[in-house]
Amino acid sequence: SMTQGRGIFTMEFSHYDEVPRSVAETIIAKSKGNA
Questions:
Q1: How many angstroms separate the CA atoms of 1 and 31, rounded?
Q2: What's the domain range around 12?
Q3: CA–CA gap between residue 2 and residue 20 (Å, rounded)
Q4: How distant, in Å, are the alpha carbons of 4, 12, 13, 34 from that of 28?
Q5: What is the CA radius of gyration of the chain?
Q6: CA pair distance 5, 28, nearest whole angstrom
Q7: H or E element: which one contains 9?
Q8: Domains in the chain: how many in total?
Q9: What is the structure's pLDDT at 17?
Q10: What pLDDT does 25 receive?
Q11: pLDDT value at position 34?
C-alpha cells in the first residue's frame, strides 16, 4: 500500500514542475482525495 501511494506522489511531483501550480495542486488534491 505504501509503495503504491509513494509512487503516485512521485509521479505527481514529476508533473508538478511541468504543469502550472494550480493544475498541480488540483491533481495532488485529487490524489489525496481532498478535492
A1: 14
A2: 2-32
A3: 27
A4: 15, 7, 9, 9
A5: 10
A6: 12
A7: helix 2-16
A8: 1
A9: 58
A10: 85
A11: 64
Q: Cell numbers at residue 22, please?
A: 494550480
pLDDT of residue 33: 78
Q: Which pTM was predicted?
A: 0.36
pLDDT 10s digits, 1-35 = 555 555 555 555 555 556 777 888 888 888 887 65
DSSP 22: H
Q: Which residue has the cell 511541468?
A: 18
Cell reading at 29: 488534491
Contact between 3 and 11 (Cβ < 8 Å): no
Widest CA span in the chain: 29
